Amino acid sequence: MIFHVVPLDDWLLAPDRPYAPRVLAEGGFIPCTAEESQALAVADTRFRETVGPVMTLMIDEHRLDARLRWEPTPQIYGRINRSAVAGMLEVERDHEGRALALAVWS
């Protein structure tokens, strides 16, 4: 399992198509983490100012259609097929937007 942090609004933009965040077009890959604790750190540093829920996608790397490379963190070179997302965790944040914990989202 690998993890990718995303604002919920971005994830919901085109639910009938593979997920293709802006970072893919800008950098050529989607950055991921290998551990939940790393995803929480990403949420804290990159998404503190984000309005609305921030999610951590739980991606089954064996179900990805796109190429995955470890450099040394996991990077997905292509769009994420939604069938590879095994679940999502919500980033719990304090009133200043600091990431505190990950919680199962239903």
In summary, what is this structure?
This protein has a single domain (2-104), classed as Protein of unknown function DUF952 (ADP-ribosylation fold).
Total discrete domains: 1
Percent of residues in β-strands: 25-35%
The number of distinct helices, counting runs of at least 4 residues, comes to 3
The CATH topology is given as ADP-ribosylation fold
Structural class: alpha+beta
The end-to-end span amounts to 19 Å
CATH class: Alpha Beta
Per CATH, the superfamily is: Protein of unknown function DUF952
Q: Can you count the beta strands?
A: 7
Shape type = globular
* Largest sheet, strands/sense/barrel: 4 strands, antiparallel
Per CATH, the architecture is Alpha-Beta Barrel
* Unreliable spans: none
InterPro entries: DUF952
Protein name: DUF952 domain-containing protein
Organism: Streptomyces axinellae
Pfam families: DUF952
